Amino acid sequence: IGYNLSAAVKDPEIKEKCYWAGVNILKEGIKFNQDKYDLFFECGWVYYQKLKLYAEAAKYFALALQRKDHPMYVSHMLAHSYAKQHNWQKSLEIWESVKRKGYKNGSQSEVAERHIKKMKKYIKMEQRGETVKDEIKKKEEEKKEQDKVLTTMKN
């Protein structure tokens, strides 16, 4: 709701107020729908995607994960939330769980394996006293460069 309301707004302060209004509505809905994952997930999504409050996002994604019939992307978002907080170990544990479960889509194991390798790499880097932030920045820059190349090729 907050996300949809904010789409028509340009002012960043008003956008943020819309996001918070959405969070408050979702929390009210959660009080009456404790057994469904959806509202917990949506609340986590607003915290993650729009407010960049990754610890709060992780809290709601974890609650969504405790509900029956949650889709695999709930686990993914929980793992990403932990990674955004640089909690590589918790992210690794979630990705390993995704890989063990396998879900219905075999490609999920491949996605999980890719993230497992990355989390293990980050854990080792920190153990050696290296800065993971520089590695992440480097990867983001490489991705931007790849995106430029793809855009150029399309035109």
Structure description:
- This protein is mainly α and 155 residues long.
- Helix content is 79%, strand content 0%.
Chain-wise SSE layout:
Elements: H1 2-6, H2 12-32, H3 37-50, H4 54-65, H5 72-84, H6 88-101, H7 107-127, H8 132-154
Helix pairs in contact: 2-3, 3-4, 4-5, 5-6, 6-7
How big is the Rg? 18 Å
Structural class: mainly alpha
Q: Work out the number of β strands.
A: 0
Helix content: over 70%
Short description:
This protein is mainly alpha-helical. It contains 8 helices and no strands.
Characteristic key phrases:
mainly alpha; 155 residues; single chain
